[in-house]
Automatic annotation (TrEMBL):
<feature type="domain" description="Core-binding (CB)">
    <location>
        <begin position="57"/>
        <end position="135"/>
    </location>
</feature>
<dbReference type="InterPro" id="IPR011010">
    <property type="entry name" value="DNA_brk_join_enz"/>
</dbReference>
<dbReference type="GO" id="GO:0015074">
    <property type="term" value="P:DNA integration"/>
</dbReference>
<keyword id="KW-0229">DNA integration</keyword>
<dbReference type="GO" id="GO:0006310">
    <property type="term" value="P:DNA recombination"/>
</dbReference>
<keyword id="KW-0233">DNA recombination</keyword>
<dbReference type="Pfam" id="PF00589">
    <property type="entry name" value="Phage_integrase"/>
</dbReference>
<comment type="similarity">
    <text>Belongs to the 'phage' integrase family.</text>
</comment>
<dbReference type="InterPro" id="IPR013762">
    <property type="entry name" value="Integrase-like_cat_sf"/>
</dbReference>
<dbReference type="GO" id="GO:0003677">
    <property type="term" value="F:DNA binding"/>
</dbReference>
<feature type="domain" description="Tyr recombinase">
    <location>
        <begin position="155"/>
        <end position="323"/>
    </location>
</feature>
<dbReference type="InterPro" id="IPR044068">
    <property type="entry name" value="CB"/>
</dbReference>
<dbReference type="InterPro" id="IPR010998">
    <property type="entry name" value="Integrase_recombinase_N"/>
</dbReference>
<dbReference type="InterPro" id="IPR050090">
    <property type="entry name" value="Tyrosine_recombinase_XerCD"/>
</dbReference>
<keyword id="KW-0238">DNA-binding</keyword>
<protein>
    <submittedName>
        <fullName>Integrase</fullName>
    </submittedName>
</protein>
<dbReference type="InterPro" id="IPR002104">
    <property type="entry name" value="Integrase_catalytic"/>
</dbReference>
């Protein structure tokens, strides 16, 4: 029987050309609509089997598979935010109908919200990754449209001189000051500091570690604890059985709070985010001669390119080459 009911919803019963039996909900309570769904499904199965055509998939199908396969990503929650926004433009759209003009409309719609080119690019990157996977891995598409990223201005690395950092720490409430100082001592990202457990700390070995599933690059990070970091950790002893950093006995989930921004204002520091504490840590290391390869390992960066952003902050290794001109300049002056 090609059509039958389960409760009030019609279902279809289809046998494929290969003999496989498919029972699937038509998602409707109207028999005529269910019959239309049945006929379309049967036709597509025949064309797939006899003509070798690929089944036409929707954007929603792709999103579901993407989220399932990428659930391990450190940035999956950010991807979900972008995908929710894209749903307003691509829900129910067939993948093979997404064209260059479709992407241009999406770009224009996001820009109309007054966001930066960088914000638009983060959304386009997710869209591009899904379409590429539909071509290269899922075999759902023969080709995908080219997605051109918008030009982003090159940003300077924002870091604090030591006197400004001390001024900020003095203005922060104790629980935020401890975490900020620990970030400056270790370079750990916000989530790794707020989520640090006592089981990840070894005071005897003066070390801590970040597990692969906690790291952005999904690789374990060994964290050597200098004297400043040790002092901060020891101050937290006995406050909580599991978490290192807490506020009145409760885990800390957010650090960019009103107290953070008020402290920045009192300290006279502008255009500074919590993540810039990590940039400050890296900048101080480079300025004091830490090799880039060592900084990459300590910071848990996946590629050397991420670390080379700080290379311009030190010129000590170039000094001998600069000195070679001294004798030549002296001769010219004579």
């Amino acid at each position: 029987m090609p059509l039958y009911k389960r409760g009030t919803v019609w279902w279809v019963d289809v046998v494929t050309p290969s003999g496989e039996r498919i029972r699937q909900s038509a998602g409707t309570e109207i028999k005529a609509h269910a019959q239309e769904f049945h006929d379309k499904l049967k036709s597509e199965l025949w064309r797939l089997s006899k003509l070798g055509e690929k089944p036409r998939r929707t954007w929603n199908d792709a999103v579901v598979r993407w989220l399932k396969e990428q659930s391990h990503k450190a940035t999956i929650e950010t991807d979900k935010i972008h995908l929710r926004w894209l749903d307003g433009h691509l829900a129910g759209v067939l993948l093979d109908t997404i064209s260059r003009s479709t992407i241009d409309l999406i770009t224009d719609a996001k820009l109309a919200e007054g966001v930066s080119n960088a914000t638009v690019n983060r959304i386009l990157e997710v869209l591009r990754a899904i379409l590429r996977r539909a071509v290269n891995q899922w075999d759902w598409l023969d080709r995908a449209p080219q997605i051109r990223m918008l030009k982003e201005p090159t940003r300077r690395i924002r870091f604090l001189p030591r006197e400004e950092a001390q001024r900020l720490l003095a203005e922060l409430p104790p629980h935020l000051a401890d975490m900020a100082a620990f970030s400056l001592a270790t370079g750990l990202r916000r989530a790794n500091v707020t989520g640090l457990l006592w089981s990840q700390v070894d005071l005897k070995r003066r070390a801590a570690w970040i597990h692969p599933d906690q790291a952005k690059a999904r690789r374990a990070i060994a964290v050597p604890l200098n004297q400043e970091a040790m002092s901060i950790i020891q101050k937290q002893t006995g406050k909580h059985p599991q978490r290192v950093f807490t506020y009145h006995g409760s885990p800390i989930l957010q650090v960019s709070t009103k107290a953070w921004y008020s402290a920045l204002e009192r300290a006279g520091i502008e255009n500074f985010r919590w993540h810039d504490l990590r940039h400050t840590w890296a900048s101080w290391h480079v300025q004091n001669g830490t090799p880039l390869f060592a900084l990459q390992e300590m910071g848990g960066w996946e590629s050397s390119e991420m670390v080379r952003r700080y290379a311009h902050l030190t010129a000590g290794h170039l000094a001998p080459y600069a000195d070679r001109l001294e004798s030549l300049i002296a001769q010219v002056e004579l």
